[in-house]
Structures are given as C-alpha cells and as structure tokens.
Amino acid sequence: MIRSYTSDRTDAIRRGVHKTVHALEEDIRAWIASWNEDPKPFVWTKTAEEILDALTAYCRRISDSAN
Hints:
3 helices, 70% helix, mainly alpha, single chain
C-alpha cells in the first residue's frame, strides 16, 4: 500500500498538477513522510570511474560548443 501511495505522490509532484505553491509543499511533505516510513538506500548503477568519464566528456562537449 505504501509503495503505490509513494508512487502516486511522486507522479503528482513530477506532473506539476499543483495550483499553488502551498499545495506543492503539502504534497512534498506528504511524500517525505511516506518515504520515511519505509526508506530505501540509494543504489549506484555506475562506478565512480564511469560517472567521472561521462562528466569529463560532457565538459569537453560544452566547452567546445560555439555558443
């Protein structure tokens, strides 16, 4: 039940269906509360070397742009 509730909250926050900042803040606080009931650790999917290589390639790409 919490999994689907958290997923629904995440979707609502991402979609930006809030008419006021207060409504967005309430949804974020509710998401945090539900997440804290059953937290899950962040799992890295890439090694530090892969992340740094991608960052280096990105920095080279943007520094070589003609903008």
